[in-house]
Design a protein that fits this description.
48% helix, 4-stranded antiparallel beta sheet, 19 helices, Isoleucyl-tRNA Synthetase, Domain 1, 15 strands, 6-stranded parallel beta sheet, 2 domains, Rossmann fold
Length: 477
């Protein structure tokens, strides 16, 4: 049995979960479930990024201990497991003592390699991004992602990571593994960035100014910069650096990340791994942004879509269906209530009605007992596998719903409900073939719509076809 490791990025716990992260974790869950369904032993990691200036400032404003603050928000993100029916095996908080120890060991290895040094840090810094900003990245002297926040002028002594040491090794990595970053145009983008020259980046902050961070092992006056420590979660969650841990068996893995994390995930993190003499990740899948009702979502403007509210109205599988089929796998997409309504209706009418209708006919005419069909679905299986390997969730569901459409067309055109009056055997054969299509649909939908898939198979996988309630009941209307 093979092994498969997949991880999301860790959302920053300065706000409650929004639909953008729901997209990322549902995509990752679809991949995890698909590989588990093929017999792989899967480790699926997510969690929360919990250090840094933003977190510290928020905790101070709310009068809370930073650890109590991050635990409160971590619980909100962990609640997505139930709301979105997620199958993750690991949930890591970067304030966890084991992660802190791993981050300190990682620092020591990079330091001993000669890749960490102290220097003066003078930069314009966006607290919203937790990143320094060059003049070329600014619009009217503001960060375009957080235009309402004043940039901080930082002038202090920090530790730096010798990013510049790894330009050629990164370029060699991209050359040797052309599927290292998916989609291809993101690989070209990061290659261009690296080719233009790498600038060493700051990896510490002065503890007296910002105490909420992982302590630097050899310097009590500094804590690690949030990006440095957070990236290490991908291996600390596997038990690194302990011998015999899951790290020995599951690393490297696949990282799912948004396009705003391209530089951090596919260049900075990979250089850090090379510095610590650890194999780079297996692959980085980059997805786009979701806009809300045609506008880019922003916590500062308050137009963030709450996935819990969408689930409360439409149900878990309906939201998963929207995210996987409506949003392009690696490009930007839009969330609108009107389109969500259309996708829900489509799901209920096309799939829900098919399952209910065929079960009702099977029970009415044949007491639910149909004939076994031995159709070869290998061609369809290959096409679905290829779509997953390309991280093309929309194509995957398009392929499944081509079969849904065919089953509905067969039901309407072949009309077993009419034929049964004159030729029972022929009507039974038609229903048996459609039931076989529905069983294939149920199995194919396991990674995407797990609740509906299990219910379809419960009704259709036994000796007797079962009837039941609507597959996609509307909740709060």
């Amino acid at each position: 049995m093979g092994k498969y490791y997949i991880t999301t990025t860790l959302p920053y716990v300065n706000a409650k979960p929004h639909i953008g992260f729901a997209l990322e974790i549902v995509q990752a869950d679809c991949l995890a479930r698909f590989h588990a369904g093929k017999g792989a032993h899967v480790v699926f990691n997510t969690g929360t990024d919990e250090h840094g200036q933003k977190i510290y400032d928020k905790a101070v404003i709310e009068g809370k201990d930073p650890k109590a603050y991050v635990d409160e928000y971590a619980a909100k993100f962990d609640a997505l497991k139930s709301a979105l029916n997620l199958s993750y095996t690991n949930f890591i908080q970067t304030s966890n003592p084991e992660h802190v120890k791993a981050a300190q060991e990682f620092w020591k290895r990079c330091f001993e390699k000669g890749d960490i040094y102290k220097d003066r840090y003078q930069v314009k810094y966006c607290v919203g991004c937790e990143l320094e900003k060059t003049e070329s990245e600014l619009v009217d002297d503001r960060c375009p992602i957080h235009p309402t926040l004043e940039l901080q002028l930082v002038d202090e002594e920090n530790y730096f990571f010798r990013f510049s040491n790894y330009q050629q090794q990164l370029l060699d990595l991209y050359q040797a593994r052309p599927d290292f970053v998916v989609p291809e145009h993101r690989l070209k983008e990061i290659r261009t960035f690296v080719e233009s020259g790498l600038k060493d980046f700051s990896i510490s902050r002065i503890k007296s100014k910002m105490p909420w961070g992982v302590p630097v092992p050899h310097d009590d006056e500094h804590v690690m910069y949030v990006w440095f420590d957070a990236l290490i979660n991908y291996i600390s969650t596997l038990g690194w650096p302990k011998e015999g841990s899951d790290f020995d068996h599951f690393w490297p893995g696949v990282q799912v990340a948004g396009k705003d994390n391209l530089r951090q995930q596919s260049a900075m993190w990979q250089a850090m791994l090379l510095s610590a003499d650890i194999e780079p990740s297996k692959q980085v899948f980059i997805h786009g942004f979701i806009t809300a009702e045609g506008q880019k979502m922003s916590k500062t403007t308050g137009n963030v879509v709450d996935p819990f509210e969408v689930v409360d109205e439409f149900g878990t599988d309906a939201l998963r269906y929207y995210l996987l089929r409506e949003i392009p796998a690696s490009e930007d997409g839009d969330f609108s209530t009107a389109r969500m309504e259309e996708r829900y209706t489509e799901l209920a009418n096309q799939l829900g009605n098919l399952v209910s209708r065929v079960a009702a006919m099977s029970n009415k005419y044949f007491d639910g007992k149909l004939d076994g069909i031995d159709r070869d679905w290998s061609k369809e299986d290959e096409a679905l596998t290829a779509a997953i390997q390309d991280y093309d969730f929309k194509k995957y569901l398009d392929l499944v719903f081509e079969i849904v459409a065919q089953a509905n067309e067969d039901t309407d055109k072949k009309a077993p409900f009419k034929l049964v009056k004159t030729d029972e055997a022929a009507a039974k054969q038609i229903l048996s073939e459609i039931a076989d299509q529905i069983r294939f649909i149920g199995n194919a939908l396991r990674p995407c719509l797990p609740d509906a898939a299990e219910e379809i198979l419960r009704r259709y996988d036994g000796d007797v076809i079962l009837t039941g309630e609507s597959l996609f009941p509307r909740r709060n209307t």
